[in-house]
Design a protein that fits this description.
Layout (H helix, E strand, L loop, with lengths): L3 E4 L5 H10 L3 E5 L10 H8 L7 E6 L4 H10 L4 E4 L5 H11 L2 E8 L5 H14 L3 E8 L25 E2 L8 H8 L3 E4 L4 E3 L2 E2 L1 H27 L3
Parallel strand pairs: 1-2, 1-8, 2-3, 3-4, 4-5, 5-6, 6-7, 7-8
Antiparallel strand pairs: 9-10
Helix pairs in contact: 1-7, 3-4, 4-5, 6-7
């Protein structure tokens, strides 16, 4: 299975074009005003107009009300919403219903997080709303919207990994290991492909995508080798 790739925190047309050229699957816009990557709904709408078909556009929100998210979606036609704050399971379901969009919910992983907590949280969200799509696993820090720091990937249960979006501290240097070691459905990166906060680096984006594809090829090679070994 090909690992899907999301590049988050886009603010400029040239960065959107760089993501498209790289072959990534999704782009993210940050609607958290305290973030250096914040864009207004109007600015996001301008950028979305440059996106071709079959690319997922994602809006990141932090502790926003259902009304705020719904109003944003009316201006910026997002494909998917990403709830990156302290929203409860019920609040996440209510926000998605108000916006009329599927959603991902972040789980900010701590050093003492237990694998069963991740499974239980996913099950709770899935039971709460038919619009829930997946957990996005990020690192717990005293901030919202991602901080570019990693967590212990071994905490991700193997039966959950194919359904999660892996984020937090990813870079060109560790993307291959992340894909091979965790085998997530998708990976999400922002600061790891930037020249400065909010300004993406086209070369880093392309190199990151290549590193993910190397991971996919490694898994495929290992799978073929295992299937060829006589039982």
């Amino acid at each position: 299975m090909r690992t899907r790739i999301k590049i988050c925190g886009l603010t400029r047309e040239q960065d959107v074009q760089a993501v498209m050229a790289s072959g990534a699957d999704a782009i993210g816009f940050v609607f958290y005003p305290k973030s250096p990557r914040y864009v207004t709904p109007e600015r996001a709408a301008e950028l979305i107009r440059t996106v071709p078909p079959f690319i997922t556009t994602v809006g990141l929100f932090v502790n926003a009300s259902p009304e705020e998210v719904a109003a944003t979606v009316k201006i910026a036609p997002l494909s998917l919403i990403q709830l990156h704050g302290d929203e409860t399971v019920a609040e996440g379901a209510a926000i998605a219903a108000a916006a009329g969009r599927q959603y991902m919910k972040v789980f900010r992983v701590k050093p003492d997080t237990r694998p069963d907590e991740l499974l239980e949280y996913e099950q709770a969200n899935r039971a709460a709303s038919p619009l829930f799509t997946s957990l996005l696993l990020d690192t717990y820090v005293d901030a919202y919207g991602g901080a570019g720091k990693g967590f212990d990937w071994s905490l991700v249960p193997k039966d959950l990994a194919p359904r999660v979006v892996l984020s937090g501290g990813l870079s060109v240097h560790n993307a291959t290991d992340a894909v091979v070691g965790v085998r997530p459905y998708a990976v999400d990166i922002s600061s790891g492909v930037e020249a400065s906060k909010g300004i993406k680096d086209a070369r880093k984006i392309a190199d990151f995508v290549t590193a993910v594809r190397v991971g996919d090829a490694t898994i495929e090679s290992e799978t073929h080798h295992e299937s060829a070994v006589p039982r």
